[in-house]
Design goal:
Belongs to the peroxiredoxin family. BCP/PrxQ subfamily. The protein starts with 12 loop residues before the first strand and ends with a helix. It has a single domain, classed as Glutaredoxin (3-Layer(aba) Sandwich), CATH 3.40.30.10. The protein is an alpha/beta fold and 163 residues long. The strands form 3 sheets. A 5-stranded mixed β-sheet has the order 5-4-3-8-9. A two-stranded antiparallel ribbon has the order 1-2. A two-stranded antiparallel ribbon has the order 6-7. β4, α3 and β5 form a beta-alpha-beta unit. Helices cover 33% and strands 26% of the residues.
């Protein structure tokens, strides 16, 4: 089941690359970019992670970034160490969280059909509700698109907060 804007994003608790448990609820009060990716240290996943790492405006907006894959914490530690990502990479080895986000499905890579995590991104608002979801993400330009949506969402909320 895919999430739609306005849905309360299910809370989760997963270990990161340092073995610390990260909970989505720990980030309440700020925007959170949760992105699901297939595998550490593969070409597309590396480009995506580095794009989020390099998205200075995203950080300036106060957004947190959490990457989730089925890789374990040790794999995440190597991936983070190699590229200096600087944000939590969460180990969802049984794919329970990935499935709860609707980011699991059939994939066709080079003619090989399989089931697994689908590259997806979710912007969780400060109140824990979904602002925007992308399923079957194309990496190029995606971090910029995520930044733009957060900036526009903040701008729409600003007049309501000033009133």
């Amino acid at each position: 089941m895919k999430l739609t804007p306005g849905d309360l994003v299910p809370d989760f608790a997963l270990p990161d690359q340092s073995g610390n448990v990260q909970r989505l609820s720990d980030y309440r009060g700020r925007y959170v970019v949760v992105y699901v990716y297939p595998k550490d240290d593969t070409p597309g996943c590396t480009r995506e992670a580095c794009d989020f790492r390099d998205a200075a405006e995203l950080r300036a907006l106060g957004a947190a970034v959490l990457g989730i894959s089925r890789d374990d914490s040790e794999s995440h530690a190597r991936f983070d160490g190699k590229y200096g990502l600087g944000f939590p990479l969460l180990a969802d080895t049984d794919a329970a969280v990935i499935r709860s986000l609707g980011a699991w499905g059939t994939k066709n890579m080079y003619g090989k059909v399989s089931e697994g995590p689908r590259r997806s991104t979710f912007i969780v608002g400060p109140d824990g509700h979904l602002v925007r979801a992308w399923y079957a993400v194309k990496v190029d330009g995606h971090a910029d698109a995520v930044t733009r949506v957060i900036r526009e969402h903040q701008a729409r909320l600003a007049p309501a907060q000033e009133a």
